[in-house]
């Protein structure tokens, strides 16, 4: 069954002065996919996400999110895209429920609709017992889980997750990755996941893209890339090796 | 519209539950009540056994008492309310990472800054109105005079001008919170501007006037007038001066001009003595309408600049 493309970019470029942050990026993500977005820090992944979300204007090139132009139809794009940013912003002086309710209101969800949803979402991510706590008292892992709950309430078509497992212990990482998998499988949300945790990405990503110095140097299913690049078969693939191979090629 | 409503609701909740607001409100309420009490007691003593003059109720606000009048207090302290409400409104969100979260929700970007400004103005309005009412109540009990319709109107206009005045400082502090990433930096910058306009502009005005119109003026009234004019023109740069002039005339019907020094010939003096009656409200407004319009205009300009800067600024996480 051929799925339709939900994110498409064509020669998407972002320059800051003379610095090229994103260089003629062209790729496609299909509906329901989990796309692993890999690359070293400062390679332009976050900038790409911001452009796709309409928070930053592209210098040139085009992008289309479910048929909408992120620059001109930013509101429509933001309505269907959930975004977890790298440093997950929540209001420290409010508790989890208040934070989620505020986000729900911003999305035009009335309190009567959002209240049962919030309870359900907090239960789903295992924060049921911490509803009274202010977010300031949350651990990093709890904040990440609250961010997942936010996605559950917003119910977007697409979720951009920028380093959702950053700074988590292995257990917490596995938990978040499982939630992300559930978002994709149970709620049919297309996921664009940027991460450095290659093992976890390998576990859930349908396809990956490797971005270095603003350029997308490889894109496709892990098995296919590994076969081409390393000449190995399914059983012994290591995404770490694959990634390092690409990285060394570009930097040398 | 959902966005701005949600933001205003949240901001109001933040303001009213924050310690800084409670402290500020308590301080202002306390000083106002003490001032009113002292002024009221003074008035009561002065007025015992004498026919009560017209507009005695407004004297509650204008009489200086042992310290300062309520009007002077608001002129001096009001800016602090605006500054305290706004100096970290944007940069705090930026450093907490909530600004890009807000911006990634399906709301127009201006809803963020409009919501912040609007909730600040609502807070200021509630604060001033409640203090004015409490003070009036206390005054009513102390001097036992019910304010007339005109006095009420004058108080309403005074309230509106005061809201704009404090909103100007709110806009200024929001602007600084957009321009400066550091919360401490924006706090210091807003304080510096406040001190500059409140203390240095009046001082600078006389320095400028003396250098523009040099020489001894004791002999030459023409020169003196000229110097005063220059001084006034320069000091009108300060929003505090604009505010003082407009509220001074509005709240005190006996004042007929914003000038502090009036030179009159003998005939003029005679005619003015003959018409020593309070100005009608419409005439009071007429005297200071340029001041009021300027004050409202700079408030809008200040907010407009913040708006423009904010809309152009790149919102990035980190």
Describe the structure.
The complex is a heterodimer of chains A (252) and B (318). Chain A is α/β, with parallel strands linked by helices. Helix content of chain A is 41%, strand content 24%. Chain A has a six-stranded mixed beta sheet, with helices on both faces. In chain A, strand 1 and strand 2 form a beta hairpin. The longest helix of chain A is centred in the last third of the chain and has 18 residues, at 170-187. The relative contact order of chain A is 0.16. By secondary structure, chain B is mainly alpha-helical. Chain B is built from 13 helices and no strands. In chain B, helix 2 (19-47) runs parallel beside helix 7 (109-143) and helix 4 (70-86) crosses helix 11 (239-251).
In brief:
Chain A has 252 residues and is an alpha/beta fold. Chain A has helices at 45-53, 74-80, 96-106, 111-124, 140-154, 170-187, 198-204, 222-230, 239-251; strands at residues 5-16, 19-30, 34-38, 60-65, 81-84, 158-162, 190-194, 207-212, 215-220. With 318 residues, chain B is mainly α.
Widest sheet of chain A: strand order?
A: 5-6-7-3-8-9
Order of secondary-structure elements of chain B: HHHHHHHHHHHHH
N- and C-termini, Cα separation of chain B: 28 Å
Residue fraction in strands of chain B: under 5%
Structural class of chain A: alpha/beta
Please write out the topology.
The complex is a heterodimer of chains A (252) and B (318).
Chain A: E1 5-16, E2 19-30, E3 34-38, H1 45-53, E4 60-65, H2 74-80, E5 81-84, H3 96-106, H4 111-124, H5 140-154, E6 158-162, H6 170-187, E7 190-194, H7 198-204, E8 207-212, E9 215-220, H8 222-230, H9 239-251
Parallel strand pairs in A: 3-7, 3-8, 5-6, 6-7
Antiparallel strand pairs in A: 1-2, 1-4, 8-9
Chain B: H1 2-17, H2 19-47, H3 56-62, H4 70-86, H5 91-96, H6 98-103, H7 109-143, H8 149-179, H9 183-212, H10 221-235, H11 239-251, H12 266-274, H13 281-312
